[in-house]
Specification:
Length: about 180
Amino acid sequence: MTVLWIILGLALLVLIWAVAIFNTLVQLRENVKNGWSQIDVQLKRRHDLIPNLVEIAKGYMGHEKSTLENVIKARQQAINADNIKDRQAAENFLTGTLRSLFAVSENYPNLKADTQMRQLHEEIVSTENKITFARQYYNDEVNRLNTTVQSFPDTIIASAFHFEKREFFELEDTSEKTAPAVKF
């Protein structure tokens, strides 16, 4: 009889352990989803600011049409990207086109002095900072999930319930690891 109680007690402990690991994995997975959602919100904000930026710049930079078209094209690619790898590539391209737009805008003193352009500049810099923080949060949560999914004995529960590692949101070009420097 005592052996039966010991076996039942051990089984109960194993069950409690498994439930605790499962709940931790669920929480980590949801944190990763939340992190990605925060990146999405900030990227959408940046995407929403770009048409205003292009419209203001268009009036001053008529013969820089290709630069403006590249920004619009990059924005659309970023909006249409549907997975992390495509999103990273599209956002990297968008960051590069924004840099070229801001670099070209340096040649237009009236554009630099435009009040709306200055306000947009401040909003874009603020948004870039928020994107950086959102990426950092997302990557921190991915790291926590990936570590737990791969750690023994948690990997047993993770495998049983199909919890998988997630990809980090990384920038491929090291020059793109900083927000575009814009001077108006």
